[in-house]
């Protein structure tokens, strides 16, 4: 049995400090809420030292407090992933605190929906910047700490979407960006594989977050001084109809939770996925098969 497999068999547990990622360091962007928060808590529960990043410093610090209160290790590094100085800022903070990097989870993002024929350039450009350029720049900044010859468990996990695989009405920008993420990940896989770095994409289907909630709920994000509403128009009404009539096109007949989405990320980061690289894991409840 290899050392890595031996480590896996001895560390499948839910106790802080004794899990599948014990002693490893993980950067998770967009970790102040939703899927990112669930991932940060879960990675910490499995023994990782987590760098919680979010544009909202208060939310990032709240997640760090949750982790520490449960006995885990974490620091908060707030910032806009699209900012030019962000990659160096978070990599330097991580290495200064923990001495290295094992995992990067590029989770930060949002939607800015418009029909193709009415979509302005800025709505297209900002989605490409946050979902493609930002992950590329963060991974590149971490290169000196990942492209090293070692037996350490190292991975890159980039978040895509079934929209990037199949397209979606009103999301030409998001579809293009999430499709590009797949190509970026496969390239990292091929270039960094010789250094033991695994690179995988997780493509989420319908997961209950603020991006899939009813637009009427009022969730929004400020982009260049403009408020952009998040969510799906009429989602609550449609979801109720699906529940009552079991008319959903999801075989499991429900949307996924943030915790379930985070579990897919954990699997890809863990030694359980030690021979999986360049893969796109669809987390959809069976939708789209």
UniProtKB/TrEMBL annotation:
Positions of the Ketoreductase domain: 24-195
Annotated transmembrane regions: none
Pfam families: adh_short, adh_short_C2
Gene Ontology biological-process annotations: fatty acid biosynthetic process
Keyword NADP set for record: yes
One function term, GO molecular function aspect: quinone binding
UniProt KW keywords: NADP, Oxidoreductase
Family per similarity comment: Belongs to the short-chain dehydrogenases/reductases (SDR) family.
UniProt name for this protein: NAD(P)-binding protein
